[in-house]
Each structure stands twice: as structure tokens, then as C-alpha cells.
Design goal:
With 109 residues, this protein is mostly beta strands. Helix content is 0%, strand content 50%. It has strands spanning 3-9, 22-28, 35-38, 43-47, 57-61, 65-66, 72-74, 83-92, 98-108. It is rod-shaped, with a radius of gyration of 25 Å. It starts with a strand and ends with a strand.
């Protein structure tokens, strides 16, 4: 869990003499971005005229855990027009660190 922690060190020899106590402060923070995993890979082939259905994705963060419900998808695929489309998947964790992933969708005739 993120936060500041103190660890205290001390030792005593066989004669009962104590060393000077030392305190170490350990700061645990969230420095990693969330990761988005795309089902079906980053490039998808779709047949023209057939409705596009996103194969799905999963987002997670080491601190926040499952962030899949928070993913925002930008872009669309119009299978009535042959071409390439870009879908962008973005998610932000509680530390406001962003994770992104992209899918290229090729609509072929």
C-alpha cells in the first residue's frame, strides 16, 4: 500500500551494550502506469458490410487493480466504407497516471 513507513533498527551485544538506534523511512509510491491488454491483438481484419464488434480489452494497475470499467475508447469503425480505422483505449489510475493502447482495424472488401 502506498505511503510512508518507518523501520527501526537496533542491536545489543552479549554484554548488554546497545547500538545507537537507526530509523529508515521507506516511501512507497505508485510510479507505474496502468496496462491495457487488447484481446485479438493490435491489428484486426474486418469484412466490409459485417458489423464490427470490439473483441475486448482488460486494464489493470499494480495499486488500483482492475480498471477495465474505467477504459475510454475513442474512434469507430464504419464497415460500410473500406479502409483503416484507429481505435484508442485510455485509462487513468488513482495517481493520475495514464495508460494507452491502440488498435488498427482494417475493413476490407
Amino acid at each position: 500500500m502506498a505511503g510512508n513507513y518507518s523501520v527501526t533498527y537496533n542491536v545489543q551485544d552479549n554484554s548488554g551494550n546497545s547500538a545507537s538506534e537507526i530509523v529508515r523511512v521507506v516511501i512507497v509510491g505508485d510510479t507505474g502506469a496502468p496496462v491495457i491488454k487488447l484481446s485479438g491483438g493490435q491489428t484486426i481484419q474486418v469484412e466490409a458490410g459485417i458489423a464490427f464488434s470490439d473483441p475486448g480489452y482488460f486494464a489493470e494497475d499494480k495499486i488500483d487493480g482492475d480498471l477495465t470499467a474505467d477504459v475510454k475508447v475513442d474512434g469507430s469503425v464504419d464497415t460500410s466504407i473500406v479502409g483503416s480505422y484507429l481505435l484508442t483505449y485510455d485509462v487513468t489510475d488513482s495517481n493520475i497516471t495514464c495508460g494507452s493502447s491502440y488498435t488498427k482495424c482494417h475493413c476490407r472488401g
